Amino acid sequence: MTAYALAHLRPQPPLHEDVFVYIERIQATLDPFGGRFLVHGSNPDVIEGPLEGSYVLIEFPDMDKARGWYESDAYQAILPMRTDHIDGTAVLLQGVPPNYDAAATGKAMRAAQNG
């Protein structure tokens, strides 16, 4: 099942040189794990609530590949180039299966809550 790496970043200009090096090197760390950018540095069109910063969304074939990428020696070697200079949050997210039904999930959640 598809998995995603999502980062909410709050860069402050001017960007440190390390950030440019990180961006130039990240794709090579993704390739062995089937990772591909879906969103990179997008400034969102905020339609509800306050929000600052930009987003990165990377798709992986599954959660094992996403974790493997994040924990890889190649990615860990460049990660401080971003984290030392840009504040943010990063998470790995499990996708939903094909034909996911939110209504069925809602009903199951209601049943679980009501015992």
Summarize the structure.
With 115 residues, this protein is an alpha+beta fold. The protein has helices spanning 17-30, 63-71, 73-83, 102-114, and strands at 3-10, 36-42, 54-60, 87-94.
List the total number of helices: 4
Oligomer: single chain
Strand numbers in spatial order across the main sheet? 2-3-1-4
What's the rounded overall pLDDT mean?
Answer: 96
**Termini separation:** 29 Å
Helix content: 40-55%
* Major sheet attributes: 4 strands, antiparallel
> Strand-and-helix sequence, N→C?
EHEEHHEH
Number of E-state strands: 4
Q: Would you tell me the structural class of the helices and strands?
A: alpha+beta
Write down the overall geometry. Answer: globular
The stretches of 5 or more residues where confidence is low (pLDDT under 50) are none
Percentage of residues in strands: 25-35%
Note down, in words, how this protein is organized.
With 115 residues, the protein is an alpha+beta fold. 41% of the residues lie in helices and 26% in strands. The protein is built from four helices and four strands. It has helices spanning 17-30, 63-71, 73-83, 102-114; strands spanning 3-10, 36-42, 54-60, 87-94. Strands 2-3-1-4 form a four-stranded antiparallel sheet. Helix 1 (17-30) packs antiparallel against helix 3. The longest helix is centred in the first third of the chain and has 14 residues, at 17-30. It is globular, with a radius of gyration of 17 Å. The model has no long low-confidence stretch (mean pLDDT 96).
